[in-house]
Design a protein that fits this description.
This protein has helices at 33-42, 46-55, 61-83, 85-89, 93-96, 98-101, 107-139, 141-144, 153-173, 175-200, 217-230, 252-280, 283-290, 292-297, 302-334, 340-360, 365-396, 416-431, 450-454, 456-460, 463-481, 491-494. By secondary structure, the chain is mostly helical. The longest helix is centred in the first third of the chain and has 33 residues, at 107-139.
């Protein structure tokens, strides 16, 4: 899709905007609408598991709650700040990053952002499939069970096909349709989650909450960092994708506030419940490592387990829909010359391959999930730090969308300052994170001693935050201290060239 092509919504209701700036005539809504889409994305039972993971670092109950809450709020606020670029430019986040990296240079971080997005979707769709399969095998074990209390492989495969088909269909419809259904999904999943908590809270063993010893200050810091990687940093690369349809004059404070609230409110609530549960029953942590949703739904009576399992599937599909919508934009931002509907279909094939690994190859959900987060979050954190600094430059230049075009048309093909900063932050960050999955461990932890690798520093993935700070700091030093700022190039426009169409 061309950057300067007229964009509209087709009569069928399928969105035709891709990586072009959204025209002013199509801008609509208020920042308040961002709350529902982020809330629906994160009001999932998986949030309880996040609390279990943070507690598992070696913190006391209250330390885990405070550290997790701080991590969620800080990282969610970063997503909110980056979301401001959406209404200011009308561009998806991974196209706006072309202003910092150049059109061709941006292909590098955009590709890894695409992998990050797809990895999250593989995880979410896999969980939705296993949850649905668990429901069927519980109700009709003779037909859908495997004879040992679990789900038969064909039951999981059936649910996987159904979940993937629904997710892809809604994702292709586009922004307007997604925004409408996410409001209803947020209400349904929110109310059912409250009902779920009504069953779970009485099972908290309050008399055992003080059994866990307090962790050290570095462990507490590790809890904050882990919480940041579990939620906010994973969303840095598409914060503006849903805000770009807001009018350009939309209040930055409103965008930041509603995005931060939508992201953090559900996960903080679920974090508290997860920490309280595992604080009173450490065995639950081990069960959640292998099957986070199954371990938690097993605590429910059968009559509520049935509707709640359906709602869990809906909430996970909701998160997958918004993510796959952004992943289609990410693939276009890499430079793939296809329409968003086609890139969404390509994503289905990639997700199928990833889900096969998670369902039938990986031996631990937690190990694979955390390893994936740490690897991809390193580059996403570096990318986010650079983009946050570049917002200063973009604002000084009037948020001009032409900065995201190639050299000669208002932007650059590559900007070495951002690419060098990305390399510095990523390499150092990878050297400071660890992987519990042996398939990922070969490229991590090379800057850590053996003791640090097996201790809280390695477990908390502090390298993600170091990468964000180092990437942003390097870029700020090169741009504003050394004044190494490759200027935008509009020479082709000044020379009178016309009829130029830019394929994104």
């Amino acid at each position: 899709m061309s950057n300067d092509a007229p964009a509209s919504t087709a009569p069928s209701g399928v969105e035709t905007n891709g990586v072009n700036p959204v025209p002013d005539a199509e801008r609509r809504g208020t920042p308040r609408g961002l709350f529902a889409i982020w809330f629906a994305w994160n009001i999932s039972i998986l949030g309880i598991s996040y609390g279990i993971y943070v507690f598992g670092l070696g913190l006391s109950v209250w330390q885990a709650i405070i550290a997790g809450t701080l991590g969620y709020l800080v990282s969610s606020a970063l997503v909110g700040i980056l979301a401001v670029g959406g209404p200011r430019t009308g561009l998806p986040t991974l196209v706006q990053t072309r202003m910092a990296f150049g059109v061709r240079g941006n292909s590098v971080p955009a590709f890894f952002a695409y992998l990050s997005n797809m990895g999250w979707k593989v995880t979410i769709i896999t969980l939705a499939s296993t949850t649905g399969a668990n429901l069927f095998s519980t109700l009709w074990p003779g037909v859908f069970g495997n004879g040992t209390g679990g789900s038969a492989w064909y039951t999981i495969a059936l649910w996987f096909v159904v979940v993937l088909a629904v997710t892809m269909t809604v994702s292709v419809m586009g922004h307007a349709f997604i925004m409408k259904i996410e409001v209803w999904i947020s209400w349904v999943t929110g109310l059912m989650t409250l009902a779920f908590l009504g069953f779970i809270v009485p099972q908290i063993r309050w008399d055992h909450l003080g059994d866990a010893a307090s962790g050290s200050p570095i462990t507490f810091l590790g809890g904050i960092i882990m919480a940041m990687t579990l939620v906010g940093i994973g969303f840095l690369n598409y914060g503006g994708d849903f805000a770009r349809y807001l009018p350009s004059s939309t209040s930055a404070r409103g965008v930041i506030g509603w995005t931060t609230a939508g992201l953090s409110v559900p996960v903080v609530l679920l974090l508290v419940v997860g920490v309280l549960l595992v604080g009173g029953d450490p065995k639950l942590g081990s069960a959640a490592a292998n099957d986070p949703i199954g371990a938690l739904t097993a605590l429910l009576p059968l009559w509520f387990f049935i509707p709640f399992s359906i709602v869990v599937v809906v909430s996970l599909v909701s998160a997958a829909i918004t993510g796959i919508y952004s992943s289609g934009l990410a693939l276009m931002a890499v430079g793939v010359p296809l329409r968003r509907a086609v890139t969404t279909a390509i994503n289905a094939l990639i997700i199928a391959a990833g889900a096969f690994y998670l369902l039938f190859v990986s031996t631990s959900f937690l190990a694979t999930f955390q390893s994936f987060l740490s690897l991809i979050a390193v580059m996403m954190g570096t990318l986010g730090g650079i983009q946050l600094i570049d917002f200063i430059r973009q604002r000084r230049r009037g948020w001009d969308p032409a900065l995201a075009r190639p050299r000669g048309l208002g932007g650059r093909n590559g900007r070495w300052t951002a690419l060098l900063s990305l390399a510095i932050g990523t390499v150092v960050g990878l050297g400071l994170v660890t992987s519990a999955d042996p398939n990922f461990a070969h490229v991590t932890g090379f800057l850590l001693t053996e003791g640090a690798r097996t201790g809280v520093i390695g477990a908390s993935n502090i390298g993600v935050v170091v990468a964000l700070l180092l990437g942003g700091g390097s870029y700020a030093f090169l741009t504003f201290v050394l004044k190494a700022d490759p200027a935008p190039d509009a020479s082709a426009l000044r020379s009178g060239a016309d009829g130029v169409r830019v394929v994104a």
